Amino acid sequence: MTRRQKLLIGGEWVEPAAGHYEVIDPATEEVVGLAPEASKQQVHEAAAAAREAFASWSRTRPEERAAVLDRAADIVRREADAYTRLARAETGATTGTARGMQVAVGEARFRRYAKGALEPTETPLPPQINEAGPMGRAGVFGAVEVRHPVGVVTCVTSYNNPWANPAGKIAPALATGNTVLVKPAPQDPLSVFAMAEALTEAGLPPGVLNVVNGAAVGVGEAAVAAPDVDMVSFTGSTEVGRRIAEVCGRGMKRQLMELGGKGAALVFEDADLDAAVRGIGTTFSFYSGQICTAPTRVLAQRAVYEPLLERLRAYLTHLRIGDPKDPGTVVGPVISAAHRDRVESYVELGRKEGARLLAGGERPSFDRGFYVAPTLFADCTNDMRIVREEIFGPVVVAVPFDDEEEGVALANDSDYGLIDYVWSGDVARAFRVARRLRAGGVGVNTVGRNMEAPFGGFKQSGVGRDVGSYALRAYSEVQAVVWPG
After folding, report:
1. CA atoms of 282 and 290, how far apart (whole Å)
2. With contact defined as beta carbons under 8 Å apart, do 442 and 481 qualify?
3. Is 292 assigned a catalytic role?
4. Which of 150, 167, 283, 426 could form a disulfide with 231 if both were Cys (CB 3.0 to 4.6 A apart)?
5. Quick count: other Cβ atoms within 10 Å of Cβ 178?
């Protein structure tokens, strides 16, 4: 795993102009591999290569694009064990998470968009009868909506899932006929390069996919601002998303942004509390809370407030923290020492703000690794920073409410609006509340996902929608063709 990774530019594996840096295993603090540091010039060369390849790739038959993506999925399945070890080492995810939620989802997304490449790109519209006027004679006018690829798409990917997130961008972009420039998260880029190797082996033509990388901010800035780039697809923090949007605005580049979240979990007095605890508990265990869709903000009706908190506290006692390679481990480390310190600073802030600490709050006693104890705060108020700001770690905050109106108001009193959750035994109320929540998605009595449903956020949680066929539209320009009948 300690190879010196090269960049992929125009179908060639190229030495990085600015050298390499170490990728660190968050669990052991050992070196996983050496990641390349591209120069601004190399980023622009990669974008130019994608521009050159666009003319031919955008005109390939959908069946050819589908075949490449299918073969890539086969290769990911063939190499799943090696890819799982790499993902686990780079991210600190447990073996089960690395295999089932990272690599396997990456394979599934290539498979899904192999089928997506074959979806119709033309949609007939109802005819319209026009009266005679300044625009011409009366007549019946037909119309059709036609989807076209946008062009060169820069994909800036997140560190919390270096397989599912990049595959969810690259696969639909390629299926639609775009060419792609990928800038992986600097913490764990080696998995993305392994994905690029699989696509290359699958027969993707030179220049259709290019991968640059770097820990320096300038690498990502160049990948967004490069003149040859037509669209930017970004997953990450709202703060970075704002800066990307400013650059895209100057060049009128298309955007797809999946940004921060502070998911509200409304638990009503008639809820199945054990089911709610299992769902909310994923914040502690799933990627160690490093996931924007986590139900980190628990809003519980007063009748069940203390019983729910007691169940959550008991749930924490059964979560084993430790080495991700150990089959019994449920909670692994966070991605880096810097992020561990950031999460711990929020825990200290919660104490100072007057929240009641029910569990966690102290660093686990391991000799190595960037571990954070799953933490639960009670008696919070909506003006506390730990309630309003995205912590991106295994920290849950709880706020009580009296009635449905107050619960909905508290949930919506947030800068974010990615995914919220409702637990209630009254299905009619649960769906009524769901429709009032200002969030791009709502889980009713579940934290599960339907992978054909649109995904994206309201407010500061993003711009646009992807997943399923919505992703094909996200990476398309829509043209109207009209003719007289």
Report:
1. 10
2. no
3. yes
4. 150
5. 26
Which of 45, 258, 344, 390 does the annotation list as catalytic?
Answer: 258
Residue type, 476: S
Verify whether residue 258 is a known catalytic residue. Answer: yes
Of residues 150, 147, 223, the one with CA closest to residue 185: 223
Domains of the chain: 7-259+461-484 (3.40.605.10), 264-454 (3.40.309.10)
Unique residue bearing structure tokens 């996200």: 474
pLDDT in single tens digits along all 485 residues of the chain:
467 999 999 999 999 999 999 999 999 999 999 999 999 999 999 999 999 999 999 999 999 999 999 999 999 999 999 999 999 999 999 999 999 999 999 999 999 999 999 999 999 999 999 999 887 889 999 999 999 999 999 999 999 999 999 999 999 999 999 999 999 999 999 999 999 999 999 999 999 999 999 999 999 999 999 999 999 999 999 999 999 999 999 999 999 999 999 999 999 999 999 999 999 999 998 899 999 999 999 999 999 999 999 999 999 989 999 999 999 999 999 999 999 999 999 999 999 999 999 999 999 999 999 999 999 999 999 999 999 999 999 999 999 999 999 999 999 999 999 999 999 999 999 999 999 999 999 999 999 999 999 999 999 999 999 999 999 999 999 999 999 98
Taking a C-beta distance cutoff of 8 angstroms, is the pair 286, 416 a contact?
no
CB atoms within 10 A of CB 305: 20
Q: Which of 79, 80, 97 is nearest to 88 (CA)?
A: 97
Spatial separation of the C-alpha atoms in residues 218 and 50, rounded to whole Å: 20
Q: Is 203 exposed, middle or buried (0-12, 13-18, 19+ CB in 10 A)?
A: exposed
Q: Which residue out of 155, 248, 292, 380 is catalytically annotated?
A: 292
Tell me the chain's radius of gyration from C-alpha atoms.
24
Encoding tokens for residue 260? 């921060």
The tokens for 393 are: 């770690």
Encoded tokens for 127: 């005819």
SS3 60: coil
In angstroms, the CA 334 to CA 106 distance is: 21
Non-local CB neighbours of 90 within 8 Å, separated by 6+ positions: 23, 25, 32, 162, 187, 188, 190, 191
Tokens describing residue 220:
């990502």
Q: At 27, is the secondary structure helix, strand, or coil?
A: coil
Neighbouring-strand partners of residue 147? 478
pTM exceeds cut of 0.90: yes
- With vertex at residue 315, the alpha carbon angle to CA 309 and CA 321, rounded to the nearest 5 degrees, is 130
Close Cβ partners of 137 (under 8 Å, ≥ 6 residues apart): none
